[in-house]
Amino acid sequence: MDSVIRIVLAAFIVILCGFIAGISYNGFIESSYRASLESSYTYNLSLSTDSTLVNATFFIPVPEDRGGNSPIIEDFSAGNVSGLPENWTAILYDTGKTTLVKITARSIPGPVTGGSQAPVVITLAVNSTDRHRIETADPIGNGTMFRPVDDLRRVPCLAGTTDIGMPECFEYHIPVYADYEAGENASVTITTSLTGRNDWKIFGPEFNRYTAGFTVTFIGRSNGWGTAAGVLVDRNGYYDAPAMNP
Prior knowledge:
Structural class: alpha+beta
Order of helices and strands: HEEHEEEHEEEEE
Strand content: over 45%
Distance between the termini: 51 Å
Helix content: 10-25%
Number of helices: 3
Shape: elongated
C-alpha cells in the first residue's frame, strides 16, 4: 500500500511540476511579447505633376477604421504632417462614409522652364505609433484602411511583395477628386502608401504587417472624380504571438 501511495504521490508531483512549468513558460512568453511589442503606421501621399496647376483642390481618402478613427487622422488633425508646402492647406473632411483630406493650393508649380523636365513630386508623410496591436490580418474588416473599398478581388501575390507566412493579396478601386486648371497635356499622378506593422521579440525578433495603397493619373484639366487602382497585401509575417487581452 505504501508503495502505491508513493507512486501516486510521485505522479502527482510530476504533473504539478509540469503544470507549474507550463504556466511559467506561458507567462514568460506573454510578458516578453507585451514588453517588446511596438506597433506603427507609415503613411505617404505623393502628388506628381509635369505642368503648373492653378486653383487646385483635391479630396483624397485617408486611412481609418470602421469607426472613422486612426492615428493618421489624429496626426493630420494635429498638423503632424511632414513635407506639406507652406502654400498648401490640408484639412480633414468627414463625408459620413469616409474621411478625406482636402488639399487646396492657388498654384502648384511644374518643372522649371529650361531646366529638368522630370515631373515635380511633392510627398506628405506621417509616421505614427499605436498603443495597441495593429490588425494586420484583416485591415478592411477590423483595422485601418483606405475607404471606401470598391470592386475588391483577390489576386496572386507578386514576387517581392511578401516576406513570410501566408499573405493574401487584393486589388480594389477607390474614388479620388481633383479640380485644377492646367494645359491639355498635363499629367498629374496621386499615389498613396500605408504600412501597418507590429514588431516584438520573444526568443528572437518577429513581426507581422500589411501594406496598402492606390494610384490615379489625371490628364489635362480636371474637374471631378477619378477612379484609383489600389493594392492590399495582408497577413504578411508571423501570427504565432500569444493572444493578448486589452
